[in-house]
Amino acid sequence: MPKAGKDIDYSLYLVTGRDLLPAGKTYLQSLEEAIQGGVTTVQVREKDADTGEFLEIAQQTIALCAKHNIPVLINDRVDIALAAKAAGVHLGQTDMPIAVARALLPPHSIIGISCTTSEHARAAIQSSADYVGLGAVYDTSTKDVSAPGKVRGVQGIREMLGVLEGSGVRAVAIGGVKSTNLLRTLHGCSSPTGHALDGVAVVSDIVASLEPRAAAERLSSTFGAWHAVPRAPSSFSSASAGYTSARVVEAAAALLSTLRRVKPLVHQITNNVVKTQSANVTLALGGSPIMAETPVEQAELARAPGGLLINFGTIGDLAGMLEAGHHANLNGKPVVFDPVGVGATAHRRQVSRQLLNTWQATVIKGNAAEIGTLAALDEVKAQGVDSVGGFRDPAAVVRLLARQERCIVLLSGPVDYVSDGTTVLKLGNGHELLGQITGAGCILGTAVAAFCGASSMASGDLGAGTLVKGDMLIAAAAGTLALTIAAELAAGRSEVRGPGTFLPVLIDELAALTEEKILSRAKIEVEA
Ligand SMILES: Cc1ncc(COP(=O)(O)OP(=O)(O)O)c(N)n1
Ligand SMILES: Cc1ncsc1CCOP(=O)(O)O
Q1: How confident is the model over 97-155, as pLDDT tens digits?
Q2: CB atoms closer than 10 angstroms to residue 392
Q3: Using a 6 Å cutoff on CB, does residue 150 contact ligand 2?
Q4: Which residue ranges form the domains of the chain, and what is each CATH number?
Q5: If you ran DSSP here, which 8-state letter would residue 393 be given?
Q6: Could you give the 3-state DSSP secondary structure of residue 339?
Q7: Whose CA is nearest to atom 1 of ligand 1?
Q8: Residue 442 bears catalytic tag
């Protein structure tokens, strides 16, 4: 018999969909194969069947699942759950209230409810739901989610998870979840303190498959691998090793030699103003630049080892940006996101949300206005592309955004701040001439992408539950140190008489940069 009471395994929660079965596959065949592949809970969802047919399907499902000790929940219909002796029900926001269903169902029945908003999540706690279905994460053709606000993205799911923290209410995410986006979904849906999903609810990725067993195995093994990787406090750094300024500088300097050895392909979708200087900076550092925006190229390019920079300064190629990040995530390639001028227009804010809901950024790099906008801080009144002059407590801001977006955050300014959500590195190199050339921030993104690519290439195999390998906190610091130290050296050269002569000499100094120059000049403080 299925496990009694509330102790059920939500990790791979199959929601049935008979209308999606491929030709030649019966419902019970598909279900049994899916269970063999690792499905842990089943919900019978029948949107078109009449009561008699629904009951028959529910009874057949429960009989099959009982053989495998899998609990079965019934979508919407408390009467069917009672008649078929199901383990419980899944209710929607407009279905029977939880308290009424609870009074009708046997003790220990499981009751789940769909949530699309944080208010729904708060109400689910109040009404003692056992679990919630959070969604839709992504667009899906299995259910009409076209009304505004129905697709919440990973940002919406993690907001709801944050509400549920400490409540004991379990949570699964639903809507467009597939084996190809599962790792990114699990990573992006975790709340700022690391509270993670208990499972994912899936229809089409399993039910529409000709090989439901293999489809379920892919989802189940990815979920297991994700949970097996210790990731606190950060996924993209080695914070548990303990950072000191000496260690960070040594590791950053060594990464310059690694970069020159492994020569990462630095794929850049960047704005028209800075393309040439970004390519030259990449070459000077020892990487290999490619500027490619067309969506059809992205899957192939993502297979080449290196790093990806997405700088949306002129947002001309959104489809390419969406594809590039998605494929980079699939291939374990670091993604550096530079949300240029994100506070300047509603369109930029919307595009930035869309990008961050589609793929996982490894590093987000921005000035105070940009970082403040992404962190939704009242302290920031975004005034276009330039920084508004900094924060009262920059270290707290970078920590906050790093935890929120589950990535490394680099705040550029007179002092640069880098954080993985726990450690903050304060980097004090640089020169005012950097502020007098266009695109200094953009080439900082390029340098960071080159170092992230090098770090990931030099870091062995990508584990099954890992999105990116290598220490990305060090890589972000290394890219920053390289550019700012080269700027100091360039500014000191006699032929530099102003911004016009500074840029070519900066590129010369990047090409001539050595580990020793980084070791001797780096100004860094570590705040644990
Ligand atoms: C696990 C899970 N989460 C959400 C839903 C959606 O339920 P609902 O909002 O009631 O919509 P329908 O499924 O009835 O169309 C779900 N079924 N399961
Ligand atoms: C039932 C439901 N509720 C929100 S999205 C959704 C459908 C999920 O189906 P799929 O896994 O095929 O996207």
Answers
A1: 999 999 999 999 999 999 999 999 999 999 999 999 999 999 999 999 999 999 999 99
A2: 7
A3: no
A4: 12-228 (3.20.20.70), 239-527 (3.40.1190.20)
A5: S
A6: coil
A7: 133
A8: yes
